């Protein structure tokens, strides 16, 4: 979580969002208190969702999920 927190502070992010594809990355983002999108293009996103991430299967979905 510390690396995500340091990066957010460095860039002045007020509502950081992390895009991750691994169990450890999702866990770190959630522990840092950040919104996490789990990129799972080949499926298997259920375990990442169980950790608290919002699953996307294509990067083009990120805009819609984030309301951009």
Primary descriptors:
single chain, 68 residues, alpha/beta, three-stranded parallel beta sheet, 4 helices, 3 strands, 18% strand, globular
Structural account:
The protein has 68 residues and is α/β, with parallel strands linked by helices. It is built from four helices and three strands, in the order αβαβαβα. It has helices spanning 2-11, 23-31, 46-50, 61-66; strands at residues 17-20, 35-39, 54-56. It has a three-stranded parallel beta sheet. Helix 2 (23-31) links the parallel strand 1 and strand 2.
Strand runs, count = 3
- The number of distinct helices, counting runs of at least 4 residues, comes to 4
Helices and strands: which structural class? alpha/beta
Strand order of the largest sheet: 1-2-3
Strand content: 15-25%
Outline the biggest β-sheet.
Answer: 3 strands, parallel
Gyration radius over CA: 12 Å
The first-to-last residue Cα distance is 25 Å
What is the succession of H and E elements? HEHEHEH
Shape: globular
